[in-house]
Amino acid sequence: MQLQSLPLPQPGVGQVLVRNRVVGLNPVDWKVLGGMGDAWAPGHVPGVDGAGEIVALGQEVPATWQGSHVAYHQDLRRDGSFAEYTVVDARALMRIPHAMSFATAAAVPCPALTAWMALQKLPPAAGRTLLISGAGGSVGHTLVQLARQYGWHVVAMAHRRHWSRLHGLGAEKCLDGPMPEEQGVWLEELQFTAIIDCVGADQATRLASSLQANGHMVCIQGRLEHWPCTPFGRALSLHEVALGALHRYGNPTDWQALTGAGEQMLQDIATARLQAEPHVLHEFDQLSTALGELKSRNFSGKSLVRVHP
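and the corresponding structure tokens:
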């Protein structure tokens, strides 16, 4: 990445210009650097999550949005949040509750919306058991809480340093993980209605044998390359979660449901119905260093960068 000065972008039809106050860092931010090919021309601005105030409206955007404090998740193909100003589609905006800080709001979009989407893939809980693999991260932080609200019995797999926090969020049991391949046998003794994996395809493959008949596997970090059971054996259902799918193919109803869920989670954080993840706030000139720390994951909490005070 290079720090550059660019012309102030202007919103088009159905878009707004957001003056970013705080941006949230996510694993996707370092994973895609240099990996987007022709989708990113030189000078592309990375970053998917941001929070700030709307300073300009494009055509067909209601005037009531002017000056609103918002959080958003940006399309990876568009210039992103690692800038003072970002053009965002109005359909992706979530209003921030009164008195909520920009830092708290910026930590929400990617992990919380991903967690919500993952749970939408599953049948009604009805007292069933859900395993969340890789529960120690930001997605898992929200997943555990939402799953408990939905009525799931939650088992969390994460490094032991996360166990106390995960129990406090509602996990009934914690398992050490990610799971090495040689430990797959003992896990088969446990049976789950559903597994949400936040680690990767290899981990999801190893976990699949612990699903009950007609169980569900939801992959967030990497999809299974091969079906994990014989035809008409366990009769498993496989799912994948990608916010980018809505940016490419989502219709107005899809976006209304997503941003409505996001605003509800922001409100639940404001009223302490959901616990916000503790955050680590960096200054803008520390952005590259913060991304490197996120990649090596040598800290705890949600990494954020302040753009404007």
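(Above: one complete record from the training split.) Residues 252-270 form the longest helix (19 residues).
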